[in-house]
ABC transporter permease
Amino acid sequence: MNTKGTAGKLISFYNKFGIIFILILELIIFSVANSNFFTPNNLFLVGRQVSFYGIAGVGMTMVLLVGEIDISVGSILAFTGCLSATLMTQMGLSIPVAFLLTLLLCCVFGLVSGTLTAVLKIPSLIGTLAMQTIIKGFTYLMTGGSSVTGLSDRFKHLGQGFLFGVIPIPLIVMVVMFALGFLLLNRTFLGRRIYAVGGNQEAARLSGIKTRAVVVGTFVVSAVTAGIAGVLMAARLGTGQPSTGSDFAMDVLTATVLGGVTLQGGKGFVLNVFIGSFIIGILSNGLTMCNVPEYWQWIIKGLVFLFAVAMSNLEALMSKK
């Protein structure tokens, strides 16, 4: 990247070390502000909280890499939690069957969102905004606005339990998802095509890449990862709650952009989103532990998102000079 002057040096420093610096700064601030921040119980809580952002962040990364955006993930989170809970408690299905059926429906959601964007040429922001509203409506239609209760302890263990009594199970799932995301993006033809489409869609099309299929595929992955997070969230809460996920899309987007995935597409590294997820999870947990009012939390998170986007855009501008 060709950078000049102090501004260029600062942006270069941020691109190399920014997320690590922010993470360390967060840890210092919240550990000083609240002596209970570094207790084992709270660290376990942070691990669980981070995992949901990270799992969905893997899918969001792929959508952003092709130059699109998916804001329906919050509604998918709520819908899949309620659907899986309903399938198990009211239809008597086993956990694996309910899980697979839920993810199949997520594939449908992703196909619809991807088709709206890649085939009908509806801007992804508009298309996924519509899908967000539609899915939210289906969630409340299915549940009547009430929580789905009566889940088994075995299912709850998926969201509340620990591996070897130490590592939260959702955190293990997140690590697996990031490993799969890394392999897909960096070791497969599909991954190279995702980067190519995001870098220059027309050039990718002329080179023989089926750009529409690639874009649709990323939306399917995004919906599936949001669905996995939704099922685990229901297990963690012990109920399927239709109101879950109201701020989820913003948190996932912030984690992804903080991780260096640009909104312009074609640039980003999925493993950095792992750190971005920890930044957002720690921020949410730390603000809550410090008894910061919810409205101030919204303001702070919004400012963090704007900061992440601004730094991403500045990097793009400086690289063109």
Summary: The first strand starts at residue 162 and ends at 163.
